[in-house]
Amino acid sequence: MKNERALIVIDVQNDYDGGNLPIAHPPIAGSLANIGRAMDAAKKRGVPVVAVQNINAPDAPIFAEGTPGAELHPVVASRGWDHYFRKNMPSTFSAPGFEAWLRENGITTITIVGYMSHNCDLSTAIEAVHRGFKVEFLSDATGSLPYANRAGRASGEEIHRVVSVVLQSRFAAVMTTEEWIEVLETGREPERDSIYASSRRGRGIE
């Protein structure tokens, strides 16, 4: 029986691991290990693994074409993948042929791991929902970094936590890698939520 789920490994590239855009939270050693665990579990259970790589112009400060920072991290490169897509915009749906591949292969649910929680992961998840796909987000196999700009300042932990809460409220089933592996093994449907219920809990009503 064809698997209706695909593991989307987004932009797991060297610039995030001690390069020009270092992931801060969760600590990258842990998220990389969980990305590897998710890939291994997917391959064991026949879930196709899709590697996505962001490549920018040769003079870009991050992911510059032809530089070590743009290369896929060894955690991904050493394991290989079933399909590969290249992009230079946040959402994976900007990669030529990505949506067509999902539909041609009967994929109805995408599981997101990789970087960054608040950028490429978030935009991919939102666009997936708009296009009719279900989304799963493995919060310990993703990560964020701190920002400071004219709008304010936020730590990597704050960004990652808030994005996870927002995703669970409407766009994705947020879970750990261990919980996802259990979903694969049992076939149970992961817990999803709603804006209404999340808001009520946030206000202390439930």
Automatic annotation (TrEMBL):
Say yes or no: keyword Secreted present. no
GO terms, molecular function: hydrolase activity
Ranges where the Isochorismatase-like domain occurs: 6-179
Q: Which top-level group of life is the source organism from?
A: Bacteria
Write out the entry's keywords from A to Z. Hydrolase
Show the PANTHER family listed in the entry. Answer: ISOCHORISMATASE-LIKE DOMAIN-CONTAINING PROTEIN, PEROXYUREIDOACRYLATE/UREIDOACRYLATE AMIDOHYDROLASE-RELATED
Question: What name does the UniProt record give this protein?
Answer: Cysteine hydrolase
